[in-house]
């Protein structure tokens, strides 16, 4: 079927506009990556205007990964993303599964409490007092336990569990399986798309932990990567390794901007690597349980 001239012109204009928007969107990412790999001498010589560097180097990455503070921050963020995501998925899925079963006593009251936590936030002072009284100040667990689950995620996962036929569980019980066995052998394997979707949400949240670290972590050796990156971006001299790092940077003659860009790439790279593998499960997991026939 042939298209009219006006239709072709519209398609051409549409493609052109979308291409320009795509270029404008990708250009900041391209600039960050290019500057992070640019040779420090060339960056200084061109006074920061580098789009097509002549020489590429890993000096900025080697320096950042050689500082103890930056390595500790990366390990802490990795610990938060891995351990925090695993614990959050266990708690959220177990809680949601219990709420999805009508034989659970008090499930309506629990749902009401969850809705209250969604509609009314406690603010900053009550959570801080709770963390302080639990002795979690300057502890990595203060960045996990207060956000271990989310009322909104519990409701979404509960709607997914509602779509699983009860007959499957009844058959497993007849075969001698316990409730815990049904949950781990029947329910969770069928919930992999939903677990992948919510796992991605939790992993991104833990990896990008920033504000809670500002509130609860006073020891800079326990800062997560995002807090270290924040100090690097707003300060004229990097805080990645304290005074010693600043002196080393001066000795190696590495521009601060290339270090900042390298830190941004390191902080962004893990999520960019994980997302493509979970994308198909992500789309399926978000939609499952949202529509019932």
From TrEMBL:
GO terms for biological process: transmembrane transport. It is found in: Cell membrane. It comes from the Bacteria. Belongs to the binding-protein-dependent transport system permease family. Residues 74-278 form the ABC transmembrane type-1 domain. It is a multi-pass membrane protein. GO terms for cellular component: plasma membrane. The chain crosses the membrane at residues 12-33, 73-97, 109-129, 141-161, 182-204, 258-278. Its main location: membrane. PANTHER family: ABC TRANSPORTER PERMEASE PROTEIN MG189-RELATED-RELATED (PTHR43744), POLYGALACTURONAN_RHAMNOGALACTURONAN TRANSPORT SYSTEM PERMEASE PROTEIN YTCP (PTHR43744:SF9). Keywords: Cell membrane, Membrane, Transmembrane, Transmembrane helix, Transport. Coiled coil: none annotated. This is Carbohydrate ABC transporter permease.
């Amino acid at each position: 079927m042939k298209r009219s001239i006006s239709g072709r012109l519209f398609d051409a204009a549409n493609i052109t506009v979308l291409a320009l928007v795509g270029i404008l969107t990708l250009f900041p990412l391209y600039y960050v990556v290019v500057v992070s790999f640019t040779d420090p001498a060339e960056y200084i010589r061109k006074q920061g205007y580098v789009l097509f560097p002549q020489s590429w180097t890993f000096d900025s990455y080697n320096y950042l990964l050689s500082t103890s503070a930056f390595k500790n921050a990366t390990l802490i963020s990795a610990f938060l993303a891995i351990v925090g995501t695993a614990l959050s998925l266990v708690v959220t899925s177990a809680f949601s599964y219990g709420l999805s079963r009508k034989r659970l006593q008090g499930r309506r009251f629990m749902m009401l409490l969850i809705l209250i936590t969604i509609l009314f936030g406690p603010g900053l002072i009550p959570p801080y007092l709770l963390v302080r009284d639990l002795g979690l100040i300057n502890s990595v667990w203060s960045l996990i336990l207060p956000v271990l689950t989310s009322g909104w995620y519990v409701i979404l996962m509960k709607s997914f569990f509602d779509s699983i036929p009860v007959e499957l569980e009844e058959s497993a019980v007849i075969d001698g399986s316990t409730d815990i066995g049904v949950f781990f052998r029947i329910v969770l394997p069928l919930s992999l798309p939903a677990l992948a979707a919510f796992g991605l949400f939790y992993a991104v949240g833990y990896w990008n932990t920033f504000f809670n670290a500002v509130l609860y972590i006073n020891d800079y050796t326990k800062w997560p990567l995002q807090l270290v990156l924040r100090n690097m971006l707003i300060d004229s001299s990097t805080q990645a390794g304290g005074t010693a790092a600043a002196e080393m940077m001066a000795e190696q003659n590495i521009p601060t901007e290339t270090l900042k860009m390298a830190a941004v790439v390191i902080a962004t790279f893990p999520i960019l690597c994980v997302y493509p593998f979970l994308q198909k499960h992500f789309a399926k997991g978000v939609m499952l349980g949202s529509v019932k026939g």
